[in-house]
Amino acid sequence: SYDQNIKEIADKDKRYLWHAMQPYNEQSQPMVVTEGKGSWITDMNGNRYLDAMSGLWCVNVGYGREELAKAAYEQLTKMPYYPLTQSHLPAVQLAEKLNEWLEDEYVIFFSNSGSEANETAFKIARQYHQQTGGHSRYKFVSRYRAYHGNSMGALAATGQAQRKYKYEPLGNGFVHVRPPDSYRRPAGMSTEQFQRFCAREIEETILWEGKESVAAVIMEPAITGGGVIVPDPIYMKEVESICKRHGVLLIIDEVICGFGRSGEKFGHLNFGIKPDIVTMAKGLTSGYLPLSATAVRKEIYEAFKDQADYSYLRHVNTFGGTPASCALALKNLEIMEREQLVERSRMLGERLQTELQELLDHPLVGDIRRFGFLMGIELVLDKETKHPLPLADVTKVIADCKARGLIIGKNGDTVAGYNNVLTLSPPLSSTDEDVDFIVRTLKEVIYQQ
Ligand code: PMP
């Protein structure tokens, strides 16, 4: 029978699949999803949910786009695979398209995941400095609370201790600075002073680490996975000029913020800065197939030209930029342009903020932060002390939302063991009714806590 079938799949799931970030115990039973359409997913039991996290911040154009499946199918039947030691049309076309989206001249190296895109960026940065005489530059500066990936280098750059301590030693030469979290700035400092102070800390770190030892600073335009920390433009401008002043490359991790999530094509375009390297994944294919990219400023690429021994990257990726993924990504970007989803993201984000603003009057809601159509709602026990709401209470909010058909996320100051920031990152293609549903459900749930 149908119920018997469901139970069998659940049992097999438990027996054969090792899940990410799920405890291994008798009670754990992940949702088995079967279908998606627009912003909604359906599980094996026929329950429907509005996925206000777009999976893991991925599905920018929404679920169930047949056009994307067709683009991949057609490419697979024509030419399924060739490595990018040589070339193929979808990769060339996509690299050109990404230049348009980046609004500047970049050369693109393709991989399969955000982590790999960041690893590639680190290797390019180190090799670039070797090439240009900066042999001592091998260190990377990143922020506490930021997530940059699961591989040893990207994890070393990650500033979340609880993800790291089981796997040490990680790569050498990764140092961390404080995130520009204005909500938790020291008493007596204005927001602007604090933002400048955080940028200054980066400069001091670059100097303290030793003369010309830092290769690059890596940061997201807004810290997403560590509690939705949105910097002031002044901070990003400062960081850009500090990097320039000290010959340090600026790597911007757009894995989550890219492709319209921030209300601009890329997050950094909100600040008018020009990164040396931009990494991207997730929204590049809206999650339909694996693909990531490391975009490198033309001038940096030029430093590799005619350098005998050094003129090529000693770095290859078997599946990176595989034709079907590139063809699908091109179609994905075409959909975003045709449906003006970047503009829609900005508009829906503004609406979400306006309509959720009144939640700030609730005793548990300490702060609401937003970067485009990506929101963080910080829950606290006490608005004066800002003591984070304990995990069990946050988990209840998430479960109450799910019981009403709304999936939201949580993250936060995970270094200290708190996950008190509710996160929203719905598909950019969400309908007005979808946003109504998110607002209504979230208010109902929070008002009854
Ligand atoms: N950078 C950021 C900002 C991310 O959020 C993630 C994934 N959540 C990554 C890198 C790593 O991407 P992936 O899981 O595709 O390796």
From TrEMBL:
Tagged with keyword Transferase: yes
Record InterPro entries: Aminotrans_3, Aminotrans_3_PPA_site, PyrdxlP-dep_Trfase, PyrdxlP-dep_Trfase_major, PyrdxlP-dep_Trfase_small
Record-linked Pfam families: Aminotran_3
Keywords annotated in UniProt: Aminotransferase, Pyridoxal phosphate, Transferase
Keyword Lipoprotein appears in the UniProt entry: no
Any one GO MF annotation of this record: transaminase activity
Family to which this protein belongs: Belongs to the class-III pyridoxal-phosphate-dependent aminotransferase family.
Record's protein name: Aspartate aminotransferase family protein
Organism: Marinicrinis lubricantis
